Amino acid sequence: MNADGRTRLNQTPEWTALAEHREELGEVRLRELFAADPDRGAGHTLQVGDLHIDYSKHLVTDETLRLLRELAAAVDVFGLRDAMFRGERINTTEDRAVLHTALRAPRDAVIEVDGENVVPAVHAVLDKMAGFAERVRSGEWTGHTGRRIRNVVNIGIGGSDLGPAMAYEALRSYTARDLTVRFVSNVDGADLHEAVRDLDPAETLFIVASKTFTTIETITNATSARSWLLDGLGGDEKAVAQHFVALSTNAGKVAGFGIDTANMFEFWDWVGGRYSFDSAIGLSLMIAIGPDRFREMLDGFHLVDEHFRTAPAESNVPLLLGLLGVWYGNFHDAQSHAVLPYSHYLSKFAAYLQQLDMESNGKHVGRDGTEVEWQTGPVVWGTPGTNGQHAYYQLIHQGTKLIPADFIGFARPVDELSDELASQHDLLMANFFAQTQALAFGKTPEEVRAEGVPEELVAHKTFKGDHPTTTILAKELTPSVLGQLVALYEHKVFVQGAVWNIDSFDQWGVELGKVLAKRVEPALTEGADVAGLDGSTRALVATYRELRGR
Ligand code: F6P
Fold first, then answer.
1. What Enzyme Commission number(s) apply to this enzyme (predicted)?
2. For this structure, is 425 an active site residue?
3. What is the pLDDT of residues 110-119, one digit of tens each?
4. Which of 193, 401, 464, 514 is catalytic?
């Protein structure tokens, strides 16, 4: 216990036991672990829903896992989990409940916030979204001139963009192919320009997605989109009602922007932005894939929610994945975590996870308001695997950093592929299996020499191995499987935040930049006063103004 009476995570006996265990283990050799236990491959797997999880290629023994679970028990990860599912205000710095799990609860579930069951409201919005999505998909909802909607443009940023954009890509083969769906997020005008330049305003629906409806990038882009629409449709303000809908928690701001609140799809302050794409924020996705597929996705989320809520520690997959991250981040000094999907459709998955994980667990102050003395969230990164193999895998294989990685793959290609393209799937998956094999077991100097490699090249061609990976394998990438995957990562992030004793549900770290941008903007105009700026920014602004001819 500290002088201030607090027990710190790194002073608990469980933490100390893990540190000692790490010392004792020394350099773990995966070759040795597999030699000692020939069934390790099959024995270190778990199943959740459709996801087969292989964690055999981790630098852990059964003892490591037991000690990690003891740490989780000591800090009461499951207690916090239960408080979250009960709707308690576990987001303490914003005094909010954290109930994204209610977004995918079945109709008859009862989940209370401040004594009120929120599930009927969740389903009322889902029903309203479904009705609207069907009207757009069928052509019943028309634009101002009576033309059918053929283009849907989601304007939002962060959680109001990354989730639906990622899921739209992931489920592209399930989308209505006669609809063009695009996502605009960047306040760089080029983003909106490129998104709408070949679209007909008469056939375009804008979905303005913003939890707060105050986010400057989104409001600026939405304002420009409205001008583009009105310019294209002869300036009749009445057109806005047919071409703009809003997704928000803030009805006042939506009305203030000029969108009829009848065309607003609501969600609630207990849904964090990065946990929101299965709320109204998913409307663009629902229009693209249809309400039934969207429901399947929600059921996938719910399945993993139930697993996380009820599975014992030994078989609880989010707990396991979260604790493995703690093991590497806190006891191996790993700084980053790679997510490597072997599916072209998951090309935006890592970008989505960056916000989910890094905005949640990028904190240096604990729940008690004091500086933490241990590492918190890792840098999360990745791109589809085969492309990465020809880019940055070199560093994972032979660099000096330990980079734990998740490999995500599917047994079957999507149905839509021609026979010829589908036949490429085995090659894709051969790479998937080969990479984790190479990362784990490497290639010894003896093996290199046996190939006749000259001695001066032996060290260069040796692979040390012992690079830890989790393999996540499912039959195919369906809406349900996508929901399962996302929920798995949501809860993994939760577990880590709980262990590190940080509030994973606030994001104060994004505020300062927003405030300063507002202050800097006026200084960019011709003749503006720059006296209030710091020396560095003042000089940069002067150069900018010169280059802009101001
Ligand atoms: O980046 C900060 C943030 O608040 C994210 O958490 C959020 O997802 C994003 O901005 C967008 O916010 P909003 O949905 O309110 O426009």
1. 5.3.1.9
2. no
3. 999 999 999 9
4. 514
